[in-house]
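Before the break, one more example. Copy the sequence into your notebook; we will annotate it together after we see the structure.
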Amino acid sequence: MKIRKATEKDFKPIIQLMKQLTSTPEKVNEKTMPLYKKSFLTALKKENTNEFVLEDGGKIIGHITLSLYWDFWHMCNAMIVDGVVVDKDFRGKGFGKELMKFAEEFARKNSAKQIYLYTNGGKESAIKLYEKLGYKKKDNIFFFKKIN
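Here is what the structure looks like once it is written out:
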């Protein structure tokens, strides 16, 4: 098992993993694929956005995005964890835990004092993992608005 920075060549395996994560996998199709690729390549170039893949036996079986920022209200460096996914055929084997341990170590190395993450309510196994690792549910409500 190895966790490493994602590269441009990792796009196809990552997009297949992300299709497993989303409730709308049909959004990834021939028409939208170039848009997702452009977005992925943009993410790779962003200074505070870090894309990582988890490999096992040379196969990409997991992904995580780690974004660093200054949280002025809490007066510290913080990190947002997003896009955490392990291939459905490899779940329940500790790979999700390894990705999260990696995220915590990455946060420490980058002087982040807090980690925030979001998961939708239907991901019970993910919620159990996060709680087991010491993450606490907050009373916050997650809102989303698309800006054109």
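The CA atoms of residues 39 and 109 lie 27 Å apart. The domain at 2-132 is CATH 3.40.630.30 (Aminopeptidase). Try to locate both features in your own notes.
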